[in-house]
Amino acid sequence: MKILQAITLADLGGAQSVLINLSNKAVEDGHDVYVVSEENGAMWDLLSPKVRKIKVKELQRSISPVNDFKAYLALKKIYRQIKPDVIHLHSSKIGALGRLAFPKEKIIFTVHGFDSVRLANPKFLIIEKLLKSRVKKIVAVSEYDKVILKEEGIDKSVVTIYNGIQDIDAGKKLSPTVDFETLRKDYKIVMCIARLSPQKKFDLFCEIAEKMRGEKLKFVWIGNKEDVRPLSDNIMMLGEISDAKDYLRYADLFILPSNYEGLPISIIESLAYRKPVIASNVGGVSEILNGKNGFALENDADLFVEKIKHVLLDEGRYEQFCANARDTYESHFTIDQMYNNYFSLYEEANH
After folding, report:
1. What angle do CA 37, 270, 213 make, to 5 degrees?
2. Chain centre distance of CA 96
3. Reported confidence tier of residue 258, pLDDT bands at 50, 70, 90
4. Residue 140 pairs with which residues in a beta bridge?
5. Which of 21, 121, 128, 257 could form a disulfide with 204 if both were Cys (CB 3.0 to 4.6 A apart)?
6. Cα(174)–Cα(77) distance, rounded to whole angstroms?
7. Cα distance between residue 92 and residue 126, in whole Å
8. pLDDT score of 43 more than 90
9. What is the DSSP letter of 122?
C-alpha cells in the first residue's frame, strides 16, 4: 500500500510521535510511506531511512494567504506525482489544506486533541465544521474528543483510536547533565516533560514545588527552550533534550499540569517506564489514569500535593502503582494496538 502521512510542523510533539510510529512500522511491514511536513524539525531525524521525506517550505502554523495557497498547490502536485492509496492528515492546518487538496474518500484525519481548536483557537471551528464531510474517517484520540466533536456537530465517520508508543529501550545509554543516580540517593524525583507554553501550567508546577519544599523531593522540568529562574530551590530546569522520554528512568513520579490535552504521549511513555502519573483532568487523561496507576485531578496545587504524598510516601503502595502503570501500557497503549486499528481504516479507504 502507498501511504501519504502529512503534518504541519516537524518539531517533536504528540502528533509527530504518532506519525513517526505509524510511518516506521508501516515501512517495516513493506508498505511505501511518504511523509509531508515543513522543511526543518527534529521529527525528520526519527523517521526510518526507508520513509520518503517531502519537505514543503510554505507549510507553517500561522495563517498566510500567499503561503497557504502555495502549500495547497504543492499538495496537489504531490498527490499527482505519488498517487497514494491512503492519505493520513495530522494537525489542524494540514487537516484543512489536505482536505481541500486531496480526494475525500482517501483521507483519514486525526484530531490530536480537539480542545486545541475549541478552547485555544475557536475562530477555526468554522473551518472544521465546513470540512467535516471531506474525509473518509475522522479519528479522535480519546472518547472525550469524540464527545466534544459531536457537540460541535462533527459526528459522522468519527472513530476513537488511542495513541500507542513503541516499548521503552531500557538499555539505551544516556549522558545526563545531572547526576541523577547520586541525586536519587537523597531525593525522590518528580518529573514533567513539556514545552513552556500557555497550554502547560508551569505556574501550577512551581506552586506545587513551593508547597513541598520541606519534603525530600526534586521537581525536574524538561522541555524549556528559554532560561527560567525557578521560584523554588527544589526545581531543576534541564532545557530541551532530544531523547527526553528516556530520562523517565530517573523519575519516581511523572506529573503533567495542563489546560487542555488530547491523549498525552508523555503520560503513556511514563506508564511504559512503570512510573505513576498525576495529571490535570483534561482531554482524555481520565481515560488513562484510574486511581491505581495515577490520578487525574482538577488544577489545584493542594490536590496535587496530597496525591504526590499518597503515591510516594508508602513504599508498598508505590510499587503497586508502578506495576499497575506498566499493566495499563501493555493492555491499551502499545504501538501494535494503535497501528492495527489505523491500518483497518487504511484498508477501508483503499477499497
Report:
1. 115
2. 20
3. very high
4. 111, 160
5. 257
6. 42
7. 12
8. yes
9. G
Show the cell assigned to 79: 498527490
Length of the chain: 351
Fold agreement (2-164+334-349, 180-332)? yes
What CATH fold (topology level) applies to the domain 2-164+334-349? Rossmann fold (3.40.50)
Looking at residues 133-162, what average pLDDT do you find?
96
Q: Are 57 and 70 spatial neighbours (Cβ–Cβ below 8 Å)? A: no
Q: CA–CA separation, 188 vs 169, rounded Å? A: 22
The pTM of this model reads 0.92
Provide the 3-class DSSP secondary structure of residue 218: strand
Pairing between strand 2-7 and 86-90?
A: parallel
pLDDT at 230: 67
Which residue, among 129, 177, 134, has the nearest Cα to 149 in the 3D structure?
129
The candidate with the shortest Cα–Cα distance to 220, out of 197, 187, 265, is 187
| Domain coordinates in residue numbering, the chain | 2-164+334-349, 180-332
**Start-end of H helices in 4-122:** 14-28, 43-46, 65-82, 92-101, 115-118
Q: What are residue 107's DSSP bridge partners?
A: 87
Rounded average pLDDT over 252-268: 96
Q: What's the CATH number of domain 180-332, 1.20.120.450, 3.40.50.300, 3.40.50.2000, 1.10.10.10? A: 3.40.50.2000
Lowest-confidence pick of 86-95, 195-204, 270-279? 195-204
| Packing angle of the helix pair 301-312, 315-332 (nearest 10 deg) | 100
Distances (CA, A) of 240 to 46, 173, 217, 258, 342: 16, 18, 22, 19, 31
